[in-house]
Amino acid sequence: MSSQDIPEENLPAEQDHHAHGAVSVADERDPFSDPGLPPHEHRIQDIDERAAKRSERVVAMLFTVSMLATVGFIASYVTIPKDKAIFVFPIGHISALNFALGLTLGAALFCIGAGAVHWARTLMSDVEVADERHAISAPPEVKAKVLADFKQGAKESAIGRRKLIRTTMFGALTLVPLSGVVLLRDLGPLPGTSLRHTAWSKGKLLVNMNTNEPLRPSDVAVGSLTFAKPEGVEESQEDFQNVMAKAALMIIRLQPDNIKDKRELEWSHEGIVAYSKICTHVGCPISLYEQQTHHVLCPCHQSTFDLSDGARVIFGPAGHALPQLRIGVSEEGYLQALGDFEEPVGPAFWERG
Questions:
Q1: What does the CA dihedral 265, 269, 273, 275 come to, rounded to 10 degrees?
Q2: Which of 4, 118, 103 lies closest to 57 in space, CA to CA?
Q3: How many angstroms separate the CA atoms of 76 and 98, rounded?
Q4: Residues with Cβ < 8 Å from 198, sequence gap 6 or more?
Q5: Distance between CA atoms of 132 and 142, rounded to whole angstroms?
Q6: What does the pLDDT profile of the chain (353 residues) look like in tens digits?
Q7: Which molecular-function annotation in GO is an example for this chain (predicted)?
Q8: Are 339 and 326 in contact (CB under 8 A)?
Q9: In contact, 227 and 250? CB cutoff 8 Å
Q10: For residue 168, which of 126, 111, 87 has the smallest C-alpha distance?
Q11: Cβ of 261: how many Cβ atoms within 10 Å?
């Protein structure tokens, strides 16, 4: 429909486009003229204090529900067993704890957002004000104007006059962060000295990872590489991976004359040496052995360790030698540990002391 088809009485009247609510009409000389702002329409809350009170109660109710949901989040976290499952249609069987935590935390955050939006749409000033752009570096008079506008906005938000909204909003915003504080419990108990100890101890037999049988010295040939675990550690255990992340062991048999490090020779048995399998760079499992040079190589970042010289680092980003496990032979003739590692196993611990 063209402008000629619109009745003249329905066309907007020409007004000063600088006045609030004025609408200018584009002409041929300036087809992209500023249309200005539409006339301001008052909301029911602006003219009826009872409607404003109803909106205030709605906002306060939303903030109160947020507080109750946060309390429910904390109560759910404390009281609901983590292994309890419930059926929720149409999702199916899910963790009751996860469902309760997600529902309560979602409700707490949603109600804060909904309350803030409803407050802004019904009670805060909705008058649109056009302002000219200014330079990035504001002159003093502009700074004073901004401060005055802020004070005016704070006044028009009615936060000082609507005490019920202010009180419940502060309560909701104060309680919500407690959800994150409570979640810190999931970090588990303090590690104590657990990082300094592994599953190895005096008398623990060295068990072959492949055959699940204790190792005898005759089972380890010169130049061979064998992986071992502590006696009593089984793959069916729930914490098997965590235990082996520190206790994984590699067994290599060298000619005693080829061992350069004095302590390494003392801690070995007939040339059989036991070293941690965990690289001291980022914790990758070492699995590559070079028989002629007695070097082991980490496949992740090519850190190389000399097993004939205390497993010192000869190449790559690793900063420390591999920890050695002191071994001997039991009365039954099986290889056994004579204690735990004397230094922490793996990476990122040395600098923590």
A1: -100
A2: 118
A3: 9
A4: 230, 243, 246, 247, 340, 341, 345
A5: 11
A6: 444 444 454 444 444 444 444 445 555 676 777 777 778 888 899 899 999 999 999 999 999 999 999 999 999 999 999 889 999 888 888 999 999 999 999 999 999 999 999 999 999 988 777 777 766 777 888 888 989 988 888 888 877 788 888 899 999 999 988 888 877 777 777 767 777 788 999 999 999 998 999 999 999 999 889 999 999 998 888 888 888 988 999 999 999 999 999 999 999 999 999 999 999 888 899 988 998 899 999 999 999 999 999 999 999 998 889 999 999 999 999 999 999 998 888 885 555 45
A7: monooxygenase activity
A8: yes
A9: yes
A10: 111
A11: 19
CA distances from 130 to 20, 21, 34, 36, 142 (A): 9, 11, 12, 9, 15
Residue 95 backbone phi and psi in degrees, to 5: -65, 125
Which residue in the block uniquely carries the two structure tokens 């300036």?
Answer: 30
d(CA 307, CA 300) in angstroms, rounded, equals: 18
Domains along the chain? 44-187 (no CATH), 195-352 (2.102.10.10)
Residues in the chain: 353
pTM of the model as a whole:
0.51
* 3-state percent helix, strand, coil for the chain, nearest multiple of 5: 40, 15, 45
Place of tokens 């309680």: 175
The helix/strand/coil state of 222 is strand
Residues 178 and 109: their CA atoms lie apart, in Å, by: 12
